[in-house]
Amino acid sequence: MIRISIIIPTLNEASCIGRTLRQLSILDPPAWEVLVVDGGSEDGTVAIAQAAGVQVLFCTERGRAIQMNQGAKAASGEVLCFIHADTWVPDDLVEIIERTLADPGVAGGGFVSLMAGSSKTRWWMSLHNFLKTYYAPLLFRPHLFFQGLRLLFGDQAIFCRRTDFWQCGGFDRTLAIMEEADFCLKLVRQGRIRQVNRIVQSSDRRVARWGFWQATAIYLYVGFLWGFGISPTYLKRLYRDIR
């Protein structure tokens, strides 16, 4: 059994971190460790995580890429799995990851993201997110697509071997957005990237706030501009944090 370290970057996630950690506590088999890397939460995030008995790391700089890199440095598992605080995973997560990485030609992977909230499941948005994993690299990096590139995003619970993570240099700390997609461009040099045919569920809070059409427009606009090389610093202005 390989040791899997789960890393969760947080910033004011008191509304959802408790549920996420409860689900991680019943993984079968269990994860080797769960690390919460907090970027300076001003709500009850840290207290909830500490009460759950997981290790909490304090990051002096905010930013998912920075926080996830800090978690990766502290992790002791052979495999790293990055999960958002509002993402809920299947209880056989560890077995799925181990089975996927048993293929030496696979460098990493992620899951199918199902977006849902308290009142509805966002089926069409979830379908688009599934297809985006394939059509985005096919459109913007076709030569890498045929080498096994799949563009994964944070709500897909990305995982890879720790050695490959650092061989790629980790996440680019200068990126405020699209850091996972950028990482996939580097990770594919180590092997194929897979979208595993299993679901993780993520909060629909952005879509609930923006509305379906505005959210779709923002996702497409940001994605295409990134594909054409527009600075993520500019793109971040269009994609504000929602808690």
Automatic annotation (TrEMBL):
Signal peptide interval: none
Entry keyword set: Cell membrane, Glycosyltransferase, Membrane, Transferase, Transmembrane, Transmembrane helix
UniProt-listed CDD domains: GT_2_like_a
Gene Ontology molecular function terms on file: glycosyltransferase activity
Compartment(s): Cell membrane
GO cellular component, one term: plasma membrane
Ranges where the Glycosyltransferase 2-like domain occurs: 5-135
Cell membrane keyword on record: yes
Record-annotated membrane-spanning stretches: 210-235
Highest taxon of the lineage: Bacteria
Pathway: Carotenoid biosynthesis; staphyloxanthin biosynthesis; staphyloxanthin from farnesyl diphosphate: step 4/5
Family designation: Belongs to the glycosyltransferase 2 family. CrtQ subfamily.
Function: Catalyzes the glycosylation of 4,4'-diaponeurosporenoate, i.e. the esterification of glucose at the C1'' position with the carboxyl group of 4,4'-diaponeurosporenic acid, to form glycosyl-4,4'-diaponeurosporenoate. This is a step in the biosynthesis of staphyloxanthin, an orange pigment present in most staphylococci strains.
Name of protein: 4,4'-diaponeurosporenoate glycosyltransferase
Native organism: Chroococcidiopsis thermalis (strain PCC 7203)
